[in-house]
Automatic annotation (TrEMBL):
This is Glutamine--tRNA ligase. GO terms for molecular function: ATP binding; glutamine-tRNA ligase activity. It comes from Cyprinus carpio. SUPFAM superfamilies: Nucleotidylyl transferase (SSF52374), Ribosomal protein L25-like (SSF50715). Its EC number is 6.1.1.18. Belongs to the class-I aminoacyl-tRNA synthetase family. One of its GO terms (biological process) is glutaminyl-tRNA aminoacylation.
């Protein structure tokens, strides 16, 4: 062992890294061979640092050990001397599994012998700068310089990246000059983050925003993903002797089209994490002219309900996507069963009598039935199918070890529960680990996109497709989306519904938080800031009073009634307007009147007039009327044209001849930022419910312009917040849900 550590340290590994490498027997053996071959080529000369690094990187990524000496030769002779060339070399070998490689073709693909001169770099960068010159001059150093580098790297594939970057920086500096104070000025931290461009929060529609759109970001990410049919170029993809034939057949059937799928289990309510998954899967397909399936993973009849199937489809469509097809894992039950039989015949699966509790955890001992004869497993599996065993008595297990160390995952289990689609036809049902990759293969999925927690299943995904000699898609992982002050778990959300804490879940935010493999945790105020930006441009204005105070204008006749025109969007009156009545009796918010003047208060008092928004009037208090309890219940005022009096300190909203409505004001459901964290909430998330998370106002008033609103129509109630019409609304009483408050403090208006 000490000798091996010394050998590995001789190529630049530190002692700890050398010892870690030794833990991987296959890697250690291959690396030792590579070092020995390199020394044989060099003779008495030592391996330089660059070659040593390349050698180690090559060994850790090489899937075909028969090519070891071939690549070692190219590295030691410095024909391959950059990471870019090494990646190209490994890709070429993956795509050319045949025994004899064409060296000329290989060298052309890897840039061997290609010399990029400084003049070529200068000329290429100059063309790129010229292409973007107008935008560069307009945006200066706020321009995304990554665009320039990306185009330069494409044009100068084999050039030294550092030299290219230096040239780009130099030519940008020559064009724009040094950075000015304006260039160095930082944007306000209060502005929404650039990655929160497309927000659809509680009945919000599509948004036009600055910066990269969802489609643009997904097209950018596509550059890192494999192209359809080039699955073998993906890191970790297993190439078999039949892989290229299967990929050829796949391309013939799909025409090279990108194909994704959104595969929810219909056993719970969607949450914000699913919104990201919907965007990622449907958005990636759309951005790359592909198709996306909505596939229900309905393999557990005990937990599935029809209401979840309906709600999931509605949610996908509400977010603006139309599935290419709606499919079910249960569509393939017979084919999946036939493939399981084939898997047993190939010696890759067996019937096991260990109970569920014996299979829990990691490092469990191998099953005593692991090596039972194939014919015996086939017979027992047929008996499972015919209902001759009790639930939990036997399972079908696959002979493989997952990346997290879990051994022989279950492929089929017995459940005597009728299925919502197949009835009692089946009493055995496939598991996720068995079903998922096979349905992807059957549907010719090109990119199987899932969250990072499924990374441990990637090896089993590849293994099962290859074990059955089927087309194998590529699994790509991205980061989960979490949100503070809430829970992102179907199980916990269902618990909230069952306990009556939540009657319905509307946290179905369509949020793009960058296209990233890193787990993301969002603060609610960031979402709120972005949804305000969207609704400000899309939600027409109306006036609503949540806590009404009657106001009688004494100097108007009883029969006086006029119409006041109110712009739908005050910042852009060309987008339309509506009219509201104005009469002797109006209603204002109770908070817009104070009987005793306080410092800094700008609205109505007995000694301070106030303006009425849009009406062109200023009102002054003449008399304060109170009820038997001493509470102010009515004001008598006089009005004057705003043109004839001094401009008031504030203008307030009002309604006249209004509609009565119910308003629901939502706040955070939980009191703590991380309700699932035992350190913050020792008694569990159910103990952390905010008792004020919902306030229902049953006697609110709203102007008549919203009278013909349809369910889910959205409005900005001036000085109050953004609201949408709830499905509970009737012709007698409208019901509005608050989506988000206004950014401004209404006390300052």
């Amino acid at each position: 062992m000490a000798d091996m550590v010394s050998i590995f340290m001789s190529i630049g590994l530190n002692e700890q890294k050398a010892k870690e490498t030794l833990k991987n027997e296959a890697l250690s053996s291959t690396l030792k061979k590579a070092i020995e071959q390199a020394r044989g080529l060099l003779g008495s000369a030592s391996i330089d640092k660059t070659a040593a690094t390349m050698l180690y990187n090559m060994v850790t990524r090489l899937k075909d050990p028969t090519r070891l000496s071939f690549l070692t030769e190219y590295i030691i002779t410095r024909k391959i001397n950059s990471e870019l060339q090494l990646s190209a070399a490994l890709d070429f070998i993956k795509s050319h599994p045949q025994e004899n490689l064409d060296r000329l073709e290989f060298e052309a693909a890897c840039g061997v012998g290609v010399v990029v001169t400084p003049e070529q770099i200068e000329d290429a960068v100059e063309l790129i700068i010229r292409k973007h010159k107008d935008q560069l001059l307009a945006e200066r150093y706020r321009f995304n310089m990554g665009i320039l580098m990306g185009e330069a790297r494409t044009a100068l594939k084999w050039a030294d990246g550092k030299i290219v970057k230096n040239e780009v920086d130099m030519q940008v500096l020559h064009l724009l000059g040094p950075k000015t104070e304006a260039d160095l000025e930082k944007k306000s931290n209060l502005e929404p983050k650039p990655f929160l461009h497309k927000i659809c929060l509680l009945f919000v529609g599509e948004a036009n925003t600055e910066g990269k759109s969802l489609m643009e970001q997904l097209r950018g990410e596509a550059l890192k993903f494999h192209k359809p049919g080039e699955n073998y170029k993906t890191e970790g993809y297993v190439v078999t002797p039949n892989t290229m034939n299967l990929l050829k057949k796949h391309l013939e059937e799909t025409g090279g089209q990108v194909r994704t799928r959104f595969p929810p289990e219909p056993n719970g309510i969607l949450h914000i994490g699913h919104a990201k998954a919907i965007n990622f899967n449907f958005g990636y397909a759309k951005a790359n002219n592909g198709i996306c399936f909505l596939r229900y993973d309905d393999t557990n009849p005990e937990k599935e309900e029809e209401k979840y199937f309906t709600a999931i489809k509605e949610m996908v469509e509400w977010l603006g996507y139309k599935p290419y097809a709606v499919t079910h894992a249960s569509d393939q039950f017979q084919l999946l069963y036939d493939l399981a039989v084939d898997l047993i015949r190939r010696g890759h699966a067996y019937v096991c009598h260990q109970r569920g509790e014996e299979l829990k955890g990691h490092n469990i001992p191998p099953s005593p039935w692991r090596e039972r004869p194939v014919e015996e497993s086939l017979l027992l599996f047929d008996r499972m199918r015919k209902g001759m065993f009790a639930e939990g008595e036997v399972t079908l297990r696959m002979k493989m070890v997952m990346e997290d160390g879990k051994m022989d995952p279950v492929a089929y289990r017995i459940k005597y529960t009728p299925h919502h689609r197949t009835g009692d036809t089946w009493c055995i049902y496939p598991t996720y680990d068995y079903t998922h990759c096979l349905c992807d293969s059957i549907e010719n999925i090109t990119h199987s996109l899932c969250t990072k927690e499924f990374q441990a299943r990637r090896s089993s995904y590849f293994w099962l497709c290859n074990a059955l000699d089927l087309y194998c898609p590529v699994q790509w992982e991205y980061g989960r989306l979490n949100l503070t002050y809430t829970v992102v778990s179907k199980r916990k959300i269902i618990k909230l519904v069952e306990t009556g804490i939540m009657l319905a879940l509307l946290s179905i935010t369509d949020v793009l938080v960058g296209v990233t493999v890193a787990q993301t945790t969002m603060e609610p105020h960031l979402l709120e800031a972005c949804v305000r930006e969207v609704l400000n441009d899309t939600a027409p204005r109306a006036m609503a009073i949540l806590e009404p105070l009657k106001v009688t204008i004494t100097n108007l006749p009883t029969s006086a009634q006029t119409e006041v025109r109110v712009p739908d969007f005050p910042a852009n009156e060309a987008k339309g307007s509506h009219v509201v009545p104005f009469s002797k009796t109006i209603f204002i918010e109770q908070s817009d009147f104070r009987e005793v003047m306080e410092k800094g208060y700008k609205r109505l008092t007995p000694d301070q007039p106030v303006g009425l928004r849009h009406a062109g009037y200023v009102i002054s208090v003449q008399r304060v009327i109170k009820d038997g309890c001493g509470k102010v219940c009515e004001l008598e005022v006089t009005c004057a044209s705003s043109d004839s009096v001094e401009k008031p300190k504030a203008f307030i909203h009002w309604v006249s001849d209004p509609l009565r409505c119910e308003v629901r004001l939502y706040e955070s459901l939980f009191l703590h930022k991380n309700p699932e964290d035992p350190a913050e909430v020792p008694a569990g998330f159910l103990s952390d419910i905010n008792p004020n998370s919902l306030t229902v106002i049953g006697s609110a008033l709203v102007d008549r312009s919203v009278g013909k609103a349809k369910v889910f129509d959205k409005f900005q109630f001036e000085r109050v917040g953004y609201f949408s019409l709830d499905p509970d609304s009737t012709s007698e009483k409208l019901v509005f849900n608050r989506t988000v408050t206004l950014k401004e403090d209404p006390g300052k208006i």
